[in-house]
Structure formats: structure tokens, C-alpha cells
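Shift notes (night). Ran Citramalate synthase while the centrifuge was going.
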Amino acid sequence: MTRQRLYLYDTTLRDGQQTQGVQFSAAEKAEIAQMLDRLGVDYIEGGWPGANPTDSDFFAQAPATRATMTAFGMTKRAGRSADNDDVLAAVMNAGTPAVCLVGKTHPFHVREALGIPLEENLDNIRASVAHLVAQGREALFDAEHFFDGHDEDADYALACLRAALEAGARWIVLCDTNGGTLPERVGQVTRAVIAAGIPGDRLGIHCHDDTGNAVACTLAAVDAGARQVQGTLNGLGERCGNASLTSLIPTLLLKEPYRSALETGVTAEGLAGLTRISRRLDEILNRPPARPAPYVGASAFAHKAGLHASAILKNPATYEHVDPATVGNERIIPMSNQAGQSNLRARLAEAGIGVGRDDPALARILDLVKAREDAGYAYDGAQASFELLALAELGRMQHYFTVERYRVTVERRKNALGKRISVSEAVVVVQIGGERMLSVSESMDAEGHDRGPVNALWRALAKDLGPYQAAIDDMHLVDFRVRITGGGTEAATRVIIDSADGQGHRWSTVGVSPNIVDASFEALVDAIRWKLVRDRVVPA
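Came back to this:
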């Protein structure tokens, strides 16, 4: 059977930038655009030229991409010609091969927001799209509030689509702008649009996630015949976000009926880089990745229950709907005080640690995990620390270095400008192969801001590890989580640190202490030791 082409349109750099707390720099937008291009999307919507300096700067130096770079704007304003609208001119001046213009299709919005007659809105749509086409641009019409408009006045909503189509628009995009339409209704309306004469191979879908159904609504439109899907990486977007391409892309490539019926520009190689792209975006945003995110989350292929882990050992398909490697993710068998020996053996096997079924060390490791979790540790979220614990109990842990002592000071003072600042300084002394090494570091960044005592400790610890320095130079910390366990005089602090390296590996370590700095230092030391073990570094 001949597969139909489905086009992927990414709006991370425009709609995704409307996420609360998100603001990309022009350089970050360029990096994200290149990631999207490697992934294999067909269109990259870079932003709204003229709306803000960052978007204008991005388009002035936009990277060359195989994907069609697209500028976003709005249809011409009332009382102006398309040739004489400065807002539309700014969009055109970006020089992109494609332009997406948003226009009203809901009579309520035409009357209340624009304050113009319905027929004048249709004229504005026609004139704006025709202006794009006359300038040799591929035109997309973003039919704002279409599903709400169709419910109020289907004839007028469809008239708006026809006005854009007849003026030469390549794509008509149905937008569930408020995110309140449910999947069944999206499917019904999309079929009605196609039946009314808008071809499915010129129809797109753009959904928001205000009911948690953006991905399902997008698939419903595809089922009905739409052949362009719009969304964002990690579901970024205004309010509750947009349809997540991070979920949609693997579903379209790996799940029936889409896998057999549709073809996209994403290859198997591109799909295998999806998890890395997703997590890199979160690094740019300086936020922790969503652990339960479908396909790419750290918990997406985690099997905590003993029954599940036992079955996974025999055949991963028992509790996994796809192979984690197809999306660049990995299987995790977490350890916790609920674990049994099936979990333990599965987790050790995943880590490349072979242990016989009857090895008495298995029981000792389980007892140790349960005792330490009773003291506040949590190994289901810190796999690297668990592996180090198991290796030590099995007598297989390599000895790399000993921390002789450390000290952290925090000082509050006035700087040379008379401004009151805080400064953290750390001293770490380690022994490596009989040699004693001392490192000192403070926590000031390039802008002169204090990054705190844990940052100072990390910089001192990773500053000079002698023969191991080359192995840890590409390490960096990506997340830091603190939890107070217990209460009163028995309270302890649990710190979990996520680390990553230049090869795209990511791991988590845990530390527990009544002192938050001490707990952090324990997790930092574990992070370095696990990387040395993982990279098979030979002890000095």
C-alpha cells in the first residue's frame, strides 16, 4: 500500500516561546532549529519578525535548514492594504520561503476583538494570502478559534477557509486555540471541512492542551484526513501547552495504523535522537525534564514492581510497548525498599553486573537498600548510587580516590561598588594513589553572581582529580533536588543530583545527611565515581 505523506510543523520557537517563564535567546533559537532539522521536521516556525528584537535577530541570522523556515504573523489590519501594512511588511521582510498568517474564523472574535464586519474580515484574509503568494512565498493560513467558530457559525468559519484557499494558501490550519475541543469533535469537524471541499492534503491541525487532549485531538484530525500536524517539543506552549511532537512523532512512526499508512521526514536515526533533543531543550530552559513524559521521560521505561521486573528479564515486550532504544531512551529497573530479588537481578543485569541467582550477596544488598532507605535514601530515583552500593557489597568497586576533608564558607559582605553580596568558597582535599591534592574554588559566575556553596564544592571537587581529570571534564550538573525526610530532631536532608556528560549519558545520585551541604557533597562524589566506573577508567 502506498503511504501518504504527513508533514510535521514545529512551532517551538514561536508558540513554545509563549510558555510562562520561557524566553529564548537568538542563539538558543538557532541551536533548537538545528536540532529540529536533524530530527526531520518539515517546517520550523522561527517566530514573529518585528514583534520582538529576539525574533528579528533570529531571522536576520537564521541557520540554513533542510526544513522550510517559516515566519509567523497576522493578516493585514482593517483600513490598510496588504502592500501598506507595516506589521505584515515586517513578516515579509524576514525573507523566509514560507509565511503563516493567523486570521479570525470565529464570528464572535471578528465582532468583539477586531470590531469589523464579517465580510471585511474575509476580504482581509483574501488580500493577505494573495499578497504572500504574489511575492513567491508559500502561504499558510492559521484559522484561529476555528472549532469554536464552527460550532457558532459553520458557514462563516468555512467561508474563511475558502477565502484563504482560493487566494492561494498551500495549507489551511485548523486551530483549537482555546484547547477546549475534545478528540471526537475534532474528528467530526475535520471530516466536515474536507467534505465541504477543503482537501485533506492541504489541511493542518494545531491543538492546545487545556484538557490534556492535544495529542489525542491531533491524531483524531489525522484519522479524519488532515495531513499536516503542528506542535512543539516537550509540549511547550501558552497556558497548558501545545500538542507535544515529542509524543506525536514516535506514535506516528511506531504505532498502527499510522506506521503503515503514513510517511514523514523523520528517519529511524532521527527518531533515535528524540530523547537527547528533548532533554537538551530542558537544559536550555534550565528546568528538569518531566520524568513521566511519554517515550522520552526517565520513568517511561522504568519497572519498579517485582512482578514486572521478573517478566522484563524474560522478555521486555511483556511490559514495554516499544523498544526504548528506538527513541534513544533506556530501560530502568529502580531499586527501593519494595524491591525483591527479581528487581535486583534485573537491575544489576541492566547495569552489566552479572550475579548468580543463588549469590548470598543479593540478600545483603536488599537488606542494605532497605536499611538505607529507612534512613532517608531513595534509590528508585538514584540508579547510579545504587549501582555503586551494589558493586561495593559484591567486592567489585574500584577505588579511585579518598576525600580526606572538605570545608565550605559563606561570607556576606559589600563589594567594591558598595553592594552587599554573598560569596561561597570551598576547599577539598583528596588522596589519589598516595598523593594528597588540594583544590580551592569559589562560586562566582562570569557575571559576578554567587551560585551557592554546592556550586563551590562541585567546582573544587572537579577542578583537579589528577589522572582522572580528562574523564570528568565533560561532566556537568543538570538538576538538584532537595527533600526533608522525617521531622523534628530526627529530620534529615535528602539531595538527588542529576549529572550528564558530553556523550549524552545522564545519571542520578543521592546523598543524605542532617546537613544539606554534606548530603550534596555525598551525591557529588557518587556522581564522579559512577562516571569513572561507567567509563572503565583504570584506578591510579
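The mean pLDDT is 92. The two ends are 61 Å apart (CA to CA).
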